[in-house]
Amino acid sequence: MQQEDGRYLFDDALEMIITFDDAGKISYLNNSARKKLEYGDDLLGRSIGVIFPNTFETSGERLAWEEPGEDQIKNLVAYRKNTTCFPVEVRIVQNNSLSNEYICMANDILEREFLSREVERIRDEAQQAMKVKSEFVANITHELRTPVNGILGNVRELLERELEEGTEKSLRLIERCCDDMNKIINNILDFSKLEAGKFNLEARKFHFRDMMDYVKQTHMNRMTEKGLDFFMTVSPNIPEYIIGDELRIVQILNNLLSNAQKFTSWGKITVEVFRTAMVNDRMELFFLVSDTGIGIDKADKDKLFQSFSQVDASISRKYGGTGLGLNICKQLVELMGGRIEVESEKNKGSNFSFSIWVGICEGDEAVLQQPDDSRHSPGMISQSSENGEGPDDIRIYGTEENQKSLKKNLSKLILCVEMENWEKAESFMETIRQLTEEAPQDVKRIVLRLKMAVQKENYEKTATEFEKLDSFLN
Length: 474
Ligand code: ADP
Known about the structure:
By secondary structure, this protein is α+β, with helices and mostly antiparallel strands.
């Protein structure tokens, strides 16, 4: 047990360690044993019976004691040099490399009990502090909300009057600032509720496409102001009504779309929603929010969903924000049984995707069994693709026509990718997605990954996912 530097392996172990031979003669004691038993080297060569007088007795050359089994733990009483004693939990094992040596490992029971009480006390204190913090945050956000809403109410009242152009502009600015302030206050409140585990989701029936339309309308003005194209696609096999927490789904989408819009100065922003799984009366929805903005460095991606995290200080100075949004999204998505992920590269845009589980309403079985021929159903928000047109059976996965069409579109896709014509590749990709809408789960997942790789114009990823899909279909 002696190391190269002359020290012993057990020197700094927390438990007391003492070694002795079969005559009971002590050959080693570590620092913990020295401290607790108040002995020094003077204990070396003496009998183990000095420390445990009631257990070990020396009769002549041999130690008289009941040799315990390997894993047997015994409660004994250890005696200090000054003859005071304390209870210990002891395990004695034979040294594998020295057959006549025993290793005694002892823990001070009172000290251990004290430590576990300390741990409990610290845990209670931390919980109490957390509770106080949550209450403080709830109070302070409430106190902030009241004056902000007061300003907002008065500004809106003023805005209803006939105003000079300059005054109206200033008031609109104040209105926007108040809205932003309210968003921050709400984020802080949500975050503190989520942190304290006091967040309850609602499960109510609502019109899914109306909700998506509402989200679209909310962001349309700002997108247009910035000159960005904005598209939304909802897969036709999602029924009109679903059961879930509409407010919170909107909150997640709003957050992702506000970020997309904030970090994109040209190009387009798209939202796509797919149905990716169905189990009994529940289904999984997959949302994909893509932008052509500043993107995120690989090294920073992991930090994104942590609370108060912004990619770097210059970004927060330029674009503002608290860094709470994505963390709240992550927690909400997880409460809805899903996951949130990001695919991004610096200067190459970002794809945020998340999945959630929602309830299916009774009476929607027909829609759920319908293939994707309801693409033009009323109320659908759709970004149509020329290549997706065609007879219905082409889009019924597995039919001969479907497989032929899939192969044709896949070879066109890879050709576009090879020629770096990403825009065209995207339109073939959309067709492939529609052709595989009814495909089994694993195919659909590969298609989604392929689509993300194409949108990101990532050659390697596209090639890998293409290979997977191609070999799957063959
Ligand atoms: P905030 O609430 O301040 O917007 P978020 O948690 O929503 O914070 O976002 C954290 C950081 O993630 C942002 O400050 C930004 O650096 C980065 N980020 C989020 N979305 C995007 C995006 N679409 N493009 C580029 N960077 C993004």
